[in-house]
């Protein structure tokens, strides 16, 4: 008599890499690549890999060859140290697997500031408009404080990377 036997799925392994590796500034796109190994061809892993940031799914990619990729949108990863993982969902021949976590550091933009005035030099009691332009600031928000020497003279709200302040009180 013929016996019955069960063929199990092959164990898979998922290895995650990030490019650029290690860290980048906020507002940059990061490409995540998950290499999935398992059964040999023609039963090699197929299907989808989901990508996670600190336990929250951020995107997915379909395996092509032995690798699935996903590119984050600019600013998708928050500032700080992010724990990135990839989870292969498995298929008819290969078990699901999750990569080891990859630590990725997203840093603040290095911001430059240029200041211009509508009149330089200015006349007493005449209005002067100051414009502060922030460079390299991804979605900058908040305020800019303007000073005359050590004395605060006003603030301007940042909009589109620029803040304005006008005064007649310069001495």
Beta-strand percentage range? over 45%
The average pLDDT score comes to: 88
By DSSP, the count of extended strands is 14
What's the helix-strand series? EEEEEEEEEEEEEE
Number of helices: 0
- Rg is 27 Å
Largest sheet: 6 strands, mixed
Low-confidence stretches: none
The helical percent reads under 10%
Shape: rod-shaped
State the separation between the terminal residues, measured CA to CA: 106 Å
What structural class should be given to the helix and strand makeup?
Answer: mainly beta
Q: Brief overview, please?
A:
The chain is 0% helix and 50% strand.
What would your notes on this structure say?
This protein is mostly beta strands. Helices cover 0% and strands 50% of the residues. The protein has strands spanning 13-19, 23-25, 31-37, 48-53, 56-62, 67-71, 80-88, 97-98, 102-107, 112-117, 128-135, 143-148, 151-157, 162-167. Strands 2, 4, 5, 7, 8 and 9 form a six-stranded mixed beta sheet that branches. The mean pLDDT is 88.
Write the layout of secondary structure elements.
Blueprint: E1 13-19, E2 23-25, E3 31-37, E4 48-53, E5 56-62, E6 67-71, E7 80-88, E8 97-98, E9 102-107, E10 112-117, E11 128-135, E12 143-148, E13 151-157, E14 162-167
Parallel strand pairs: 2-9
Antiparallel strand pairs: 1-3, 3-6, 4-5, 4-7, 7-8, 7-9, 10-11, 11-14, 12-13
Features:
single chain; 171 residues; mainly beta; six-stranded mixed beta sheet; three-stranded antiparallel beta sheet; 14 strands
